[in-house]
Amino acid sequence: MIDFSIIFAGFGGQGILSAGKMAAEAALYEGREVSWFPSYGPEMRGGTANCSVVISDSPIGSPVVNDADVVICLNQPSMEKFESQLKPGALMILDSSLIKTRPTRTDIKVIAMEASDIASELGKMMFAPITMIGCMATATGCLSRESFEKSLYEILPERKHNLIPKNMEAFDRGAAFAQ
Amino acid sequence: MAQKRVLMKGNEVIAEAAIRAGCRNYFGYPITPQTEVMHYMAKKMVQVGGNFVQAESEVAAINMVYGAATAGFRTMTSSSSPGISLKQEGISYIAGAELPAVVVNIVRAGPGLGGIQPAQGDYFQATKGGGHGDYRNIVIAPASVQELYELVVEAFNLADKYRMTCMILGDGTLGQMMEPVAFRDEEPIETIEKPWAANGRKGDSFHHTVTSIYIDPDVLERKNLELQEKYQIVEANEVRYEAINMEDAEIVITAFSTCSRICRNVIRQAAELGIKVGMIRPITLWPFPYKAIEEAANMSSVKAFLDVELNAGQMIEDVKLAVSGKKPVYFHGRLGGNLPMQKEILDKIVAIHEGKNIEGGNF
């Protein structure tokens, strides 16, 4: 029985909404109930972007998450905004390449990883949130590596399948931080 | 047969469902949070040989719907609250001319320009009129992306069957969220002959005309009575609702669409505390499931009702009509685009259960 909520947050253009969708697709691949809900509104390029993903074995109530099991943060304003929206004992994964301070809450777990630095090593900034999904999946067990990989083959058009090994490399680089 | 579940956005599913239901004429004007309906239509309508028009205004779009419906085509427009207000004149004309049309309202918070976050403040407008004159629209409130798909298809059947507007009342949550949806291989399309359509004489001895103007009071009265007869048939045959956990329920929640999803989880949490909570979820807001709620009010196990809405209390008026003073009806609402948290609703249920003196509950 699983009932798991995630917030992905960062700047527009970092691949936040796509990463949330990839996690949702992987959960769907596992046959679970899933919802994805974006922050929408008068946002602008370079402004903040976030989305909520809920993974459950029973029908999902609100797709809007106020008490997350995991928050994945890719910028400083997101960390400040969403720190209060974690359940006690929940996990914040933050991109320490871009976030220089740490949450003040002591009742949450924090994993700081250089997601953007790893992504630039791998050649595309888009990989930053993927590394963090890898970390989350490994730390919490909310998704399996196998379903994440298999769902990519299903959702991506064939001409993009050559990118999947690189995505999985990003996933694995992130997973290492969960140990 | 159902196909494999795919992850899709509510707004996109509305457009896909309409195309599957045989809608080949869509007219719209962009407004958050429903613009993806238009995006999808703009892309897909061309591929299926239909017509997509981004009209110059909401008023123009609804009048294009009037035109396409007059010619006998399945047609749809979509908008969000302020845009739907602009369409009301056209919706009234469609009612007067007895045309089948599907209108989608992905509600945002009002009044006025309001905000763009989800709300249910257009319940009165949707169910009690909106435009001028004595008329009704069938109003359907889906609660999930899967249900959006199925009920949009159904809306086209109902619109054709009764020659009236069928409105889909969603909100920003439903329109913007992605959820799995499983499409059917074949849609249950009811093909209804439209001998009244103004699409040429086709050998008839008379011109096919569609109008809503009747200057003679006696003629108009007859027309009005015909409309009312039709509405009574809809009320007798088309009420839809879902009853959840109603056996032995002590407290009955009434909630529709997005609110009902949140309340469904509250029912589980309340059960863990030993409180038996049931829910009546109206799927059609008009015709309203008065009878189901009246029967619940007559149950000896039922002590009270709790109506939960994303407004200041609109559907509660219909709930109270049905309960008819037999049991107290309490209210919990959120405004401005906020959604209630499960805990807020659960706290209210616990307070009602403990007989605490809380606001509302007046007969």
Strand and helix map with partners:
The complex is a heterodimer of chains A (179) and B (363).
Chain A: E1 3-11, H1 16-29, E2 33-38, E3 48-56, E4 68-73, H2 76-82, E5 86-95, E6 109-113, H3 115-122, H4 127-140, H5 145-155, H6 164-175
Parallel strand pairs in A: 1-4, 4-5, 5-6
Antiparallel strand pairs in A: 1-3, 2-3
Helix pairs in contact in A: 1-5, 3-4, 3-6, 4-6, 5-6
Chain B: E1 6-9, H1 10-20, E2 25-28, H2 35-47, E3 51-54, H3 58-70, E4 75-79, H4 81-96, E5 101-107, H5 123-127, E6 138-140, H6 145-162, E7 165-171, H7 172-176, E8 178-181, H8 217-237, E9 241-244, E10 251-254, H9 257-272, E11 277-282, E12 284-286, H10 290-298, E13 304-309, H11 315-323, E14 329-333, H12 342-353
Parallel strand pairs in B: 2-3, 2-4, 4-5, 5-7, 6-7, 10-11, 10-13, 13-14
Antiparallel strand pairs in B: 1-8, 6-12, 9-11
Would you kindly provide a written description of the structure presented here, covering whatever features stand out?
The complex is a heterodimer of chains A (179) and B (363). Chain A has 179 residues and is an alpha/beta fold. Chain A has a single domain, classed as Pyruvate-ferredoxin oxidoreductase, PFOR, domain III (Pyruvate-ferredoxin Oxidoreductase, domain 3), CATH 3.40.920. Chain A has a six-stranded mixed sheet, sandwiched between helices. In chain A, strand 4, helix 2 and strand 5 form a beta-alpha-beta unit. The two termini of chain A are 24 Å apart. Chain B has 363 residues and is α/β, with parallel strands linked by helices. Chain B has two domains: 232 residues, 3-Layer(aba) Sandwich (Rossmann fold); 112 residues, Rossmann fold (3-Layer(aba) Sandwich). Chain B contains twelve helices and 14 strands. A seven-stranded mixed sheet of chain B has the order 3-2-4-5-7-6-12, with helices on both faces. In chain B, strands 9-11-10-13-14 form a five-stranded mixed sheet, sandwiched between helices. In chain B, strands 1-8 form a two-stranded antiparallel ribbon. In chain B, helix 9 crosses helix 12. The longest helix of chain B has 21 residues. At the A-B interface, helix 1 and strand 2 of A face helix 7, strand 8 and helix 9 of B.
